[in-house]
Write a structure and sequence with these properties.
Blueprint (H helix, E strand, L loop, with lengths): L7 E4 L5 H12 L23 E6 L13 H5 L8 H7 L4 E9 L15 E5 L12 E4 L6 E5 L6 E4 L5 E3 L10 E8 L1
Antiparallel strand pairs: 1-7, 2-3, 3-9, 4-7, 4-9, 5-6, 5-8
This protein binds fe (ii) ion.
The site of fe (ii) ion (FE2) has 4 residues, from loops.
Length: 187
């Protein structure tokens, strides 16, 4: 795998194992409208599967219990407990919002870009095997030539350059679990 690239950087072992487990457990407590959808796009009435995500914004208002959806992630060490390399790259940039993405077999995702935003992906599943699929595809700037297929790497972070085109590959029929990631977006 090509690691030196202007378009992406894979940072393995970005979170210690004890924290990975807590993050994983936290993700499993969230609500996902499996079989329905969390966000309705224009294609929703014509699609058999839909985009499933739990979105949390830093600045979102508190509920009547004084909580918002972002704090549980901060309490679990996101991003404070990420490895030094993360902090070297991101400095004191703050997460604007994050999205837990749940992906299952047979879904197909469009190549897309977050035009001016730096984004990072945290691979939350504790175990993953090559034959389970689920790579992240990074494209050349033409948006259709493959630059890299980054394997799903538990505990790793994937830095995606602002404007770099990418797409999610769904898990294969071999995968016994949903594919969870946390996408983090910065101001
Ligand atoms: Fe994306």
């Amino acid at each position: 795998m090509k690691l030196e690239s202007d378009l992406y950087k894979l940072i393995p072992n970005a979170l210690p194992m004890n924290l990975r487990i807590s993050v994983w457990q936290e993700l499993l407590t969230k609500d996902y409208n499996i079989g329905w959808e969390d966000i309705q796009g224009v294609e929703a009435p014509f699609s058999k599967s839909a985009y499933l995500a739990h979105v949390a914004r830093r600045e979102e208002p508190r509920d009547r219990f004084g909580k918002n959806r972002f704090e549980p992630f901060e309490e679990l060490g996101i991003p404070s407990e990420f490895c030094q390399e993360y902090h070297d790259i991101m400095g004191d940039k703050q997460i604007d919002y994050l999205a837990v993405n749940l992906v299952f077999q047979g879904q197909q995702f469009w190549p897309h870009t977050h035009r001016r935003q730096t984004s990072l992906v945290y691979y939350a599943n504790l175990e993953w095997h090559n034959k389970w699929g689920g790579e992240t595809i990074i494209y050349e700037d033409d948006g259709e030539t493959f630059h890299a297929a980054v394997p799903y790497t538990p505990g790793a972070l994937l830095w995606v350059a602002p404007g770099a085109t990418h797409a999610i590959r769904s898990p294969s029929v071999e995968a016994p679990m949903y594919r969870f990631t946390i996408g983090m977006f910065y101001d």
